[in-house]
Specification:
Blueprint lengths: L1 E2 L12 E3 L5 E4 L4 H7 L7 E7 L10 H15 L14 E15 L4 E16 L2 E8 L5 H4 L13 E5 L5 H11 L3 E5 L23 H12 L4 E5 L16 H9 L3 E4 L4 H14 L3 E6 L5 E7 L7 H10 L13 E2 L7 E2 L3 H19 L13 E5 L8 E5 L8 H5 L2
Parallel strand pairs: 4-5, 8-9, 8-11, 9-10, 11-12
Antiparallel strand pairs: 1-7, 2-3, 5-6, 6-7, 12-13, 13-16, 14-15, 16-17
The protein binds zinc ion (ZN).
Length: 411
């Protein structure tokens, strides 16, 4: 049962179940676990009743209003023999209701199906006066993860490495977890700062904690079944010569076991290193960044052997200016908090790019017959502001260039 409060209020002394007419359906006090609880010296008497409703209970605007109204309202519905009073005798009472809640559309009957939901208000006499707590039980299970997006169910068996948990990488990691990716590897060396509350997936309460550990906590709060591995390190780049990372082999192994690598590191060199892992393992790489001022950004999906590589992309960018998002002309840079300076720019514009990156990542992971439509292009530019047509999304397909040595060596 999930409550607003976890204050300890005592233990059961008697567990009886009554029918609506007040007749006893069963006294479970003799059951071993309950009997054991009864001998506890701090046991208090709890009186509990519930009613089954045919419609929604009379919820109020605020929790306070509801809590002060609901127990007496339930009591009125109970038969005379079953009413529960809060007295010196009964220090705690708990009144609840089961009520029909929309559940799912039935394909057989072509009708909306309902199922019982529950709400309880627990009242206890405390030295400071009467205390009330509302409890709503919720179902939590893996079967609910994809109830709202069945075409993404294949993500549960996928493992994604996200390199860089900055303003762009952190919403991407969270977005992938929400989409249902079953396992995530998180790489970053940085800590959360108070200023990070303005951008990305962190808040002030997390200031001082490692971004990897805070991201793990956040991911588990939206997808408790996700398997999270974290790697903390002074990543100037995962260089292939091992010059900046002592346990490179270990990191290499972790990254290599992924189904997708997301490079959100604002470093082309690091992204090239990650591309080498992608090529070796024949797994896709998603490269993403934003331009100065977060006026725009882009996401690029490299599928080894199928699409052009980062080198092919950058060769195209050199000859096709409209493929690059237009950047703010202001050379505004925040003080360095990573190996490279951080650009200014709004969190909401960066998150728009993150959303595009998550979609492309998901499309790289689900098979074409899973139900979620495949990507139509592997390079997507988002222009948030700064041009007459903004906001605008533009797409290109980056194919292997005949003269690309990387693509030629790994067909
Ligand atoms: Zn290439």
């Amino acid at each position: 049962m999930l409550g607003a409060n976890t204050a300890r209020i005592g233990v059961l002394t008697r567990l009886e179940i009554f029918a609506r007419d007040g007749s006893t359906l069963g006294d479970r006090t003799a059951e071993p676990e309950i009997a054991a609880a009864l001998v506890r010296p701090d046991a208090l008497k709890v009186s509990a009743r519930w009613v089954k409703l045919k419609r929604y209970p009379p919820f109020k605007n605020t929790r306070d209003e509801f809590e002060s109204h609901f127990p007496d309202w339930v009591n009125q519905q109970l038969p005379a023999t079953g009413k529960v009073a809060l007295s010196a005798n009964a220090q705690i009472r708990m009144l609840g209701a089961a009520f029909p809640e929309e559940w799912q559309w039935s394909k057989e009957s072509d009708e909306l199906e309902f199922r019982d939901e529950w709400v309880f208000v627990l009242e206890s006499r405390q030295p400071g006066g009467l205390r009330r707590h509302t409890y709503r039980p919720f179902r939590l299970g893996k079967e609910h993860t994809f109830a709202r997006n069945p075409s993404l169910a294949a993500l549960d068996s996928k493992r994604v490495t996200v390199v860089g948990l900055g303003a762009l990488g952190s919403p991407i990691a969270l977005g992938l977890a929400r989409a249902g990716v079953g396992a995530l590897v998180l790489l970053d060396h940085d800590i959360v700062e108070t200023g990070n509350a303005q951008r990305g997936a962190f808040d002030i309460l997390a200031a001082g904690t490692l971004k990897t550990e805070e991201m793990r906590r956040r991911i588990l709060s939206v997808n408790p079944y996700a398997q999270i591995s974290i790697v903390n390190g002074p990543w100037g780049g995962i260089h292939t010569d091992g010059s900046t990372v002592e346990d490179l082999d270990e990191v290499w192994k972790i990254v290599s076991s992924s189904d997708l690598i997301v490079a959100a590191v604002a470093s082309y060199e690091t992204s090239l290193d990650l591309q080498m892992v992608a090529i070796e393992q024949r797994i896709p790489l998603l490269y993403t960044d934003v331009v100065q001022g977060a006026w725009g950004g882009r996401a690029f999906l490299y599928r080894p052997g199928l699409t052009g590589c980062l080198g092919c992309l950058y060769a195209l960018l050199a000859t096709t200016p409209e493929m690059s998002p237009v950047a703010s002309p202001e050379p505004e840079v925040l003080p360095a908090n990573c190996v490279a300076p951080t650009f200014t720019g709004s969190g909401f514009d960066i998150e728009s790019v993150a959303t595009i990156a998550v979609r492309l990542a998901v499309q790289a992971l689900v098979a074409r017959d899973d139900g979620y439509p495949a990507e139509t292009a592997n390079y997507v530019v988002y222009q948030a502001v700064g041009t007459p047509d903004a906001p605008e999304i533009r797409n290109w397909s980056v194919v292997p260039r005949p003269e690309c040595a990387v693509c030629a060596a790994h067909p």
